[in-house]
Amino acid sequence: MGARKKISAEKRKEALKTMYFAKLQNVPTSPRKMRLVADMIRGMEVNRALGVLKFSSKEASARVEKLLRSAIANWEQKNERKAEDGELFVTKIYVDGGATLKRMRPAPQGRGYRIRKRSNHVTLFVDSKNTNDKI
């Protein structure tokens, strides 16, 4: 690795130490379905977002709820205190496409239809309101 890349990689690592996030990778759900759930909670207060996810009928909401709880635990661990009501917010959440498994399904007259089993990666950032004002 060159010196310039090494310096930028170290800067990125230092920036991540001040951010509170959780990642969920290789989720066997299509990114489109996961983005519907992510859009529901983007910018929401954490306790309210947990309630929305708990009572959502979508299958992906259970996974995002578990990811949100993990991000809250990361925040609490880095700050060495418990999160209070109304303090934490979902600042950013984004869904990226993961690996696609390609399969074939038998079709009439000797043909084969292609099936794409999609997966995704979800990254969720939480932060308190007073640090959001500085950004």
From TrEMBL:
Keywords: Ribonucleoprotein, Ribosomal protein, RNA-binding, rRNA-binding
Pfam families: Ribosomal_L22
GO BP field: translation
Listed CDD domains: Ribosomal_L22
Record GO terms (molecular function): rRNA binding; structural constituent of ribosome
InterPro entries reported in the protein's UniProt record: Ribosomal_uL22 (IPR001063), Ribosomal_uL22_bac/chlpt-type (IPR005727), Ribosomal_uL22_bac/org-type (IPR047867), Ribosomal_uL22_sf (IPR036394)
Coiled coil regions, renumbered to chain: none
Gene3D superfamilies, alphabetized: Ribosomal protein L22/L17 (3.90.470.10)
SUPFAM superfamilies in alphabetical order: Ribosomal protein L22
Assembly: Part of the 50S ribosomal subunit.
Biological function: The globular domain of the protein is located near the polypeptide exit tunnel on the outside of the subunit, while an extended beta-hairpin is found that lines the wall of the exit tunnel in the center of the 70S ribosome.
Protein family: Belongs to the universal ribosomal protein uL22 family.
NCBIfam families: rplV_bact
Name of the protein: Large ribosomal subunit protein uL22
Organism of provenance: Phocaeicola barnesiae
Gene: rplV
